[in-house]
Amino acid sequence: MQRDSARDRRGFRCVHCGAPVSPNPSGSAHRNHCPRCLWSRHVDDKVGDRRAACAQSMEPIAIAARGDGEWTIVHKCTGCAQIRTNRIAGDDDERALLALALRPIAAPAFPLDGFSVRSG
Ligand SMILES: [Zn+2]
Ligand SMILES: [Zn+2]
Fold first, then answer.
1. Contact between residue 40 and residue 75 where contact means Cβ atoms under 8 Å apart
2. How far is the CA of 89 from the centre of ligand 1 (A)?
């Protein structure tokens, strides 16, 4: 228990890309995902409690914009498939966020040909 809380204060290493993740960056109360690749880890039953037994990595699958314009990341657990949304943090990589937001546009599930303007 002692060692767990000490490790929590120091942060953790990203389960996906291995980047060191500090737990309390400026402008964010709960650092729960990697600022570089945006992957998270299923460690909370409720936000911040660190009580989930799952502990599998959580893949960022989408960006959702809330009514007030704030962006949230939608994470899906690779272990138990739980879906969770998390606020983005001030030091999240903007390109990673944009790449996630543009993913359905960059790889559309249907042909976009019909949307192009045709002459004649
Ligand atoms: Zn990472
Ligand atoms: Zn899980």
1. yes
2. 14
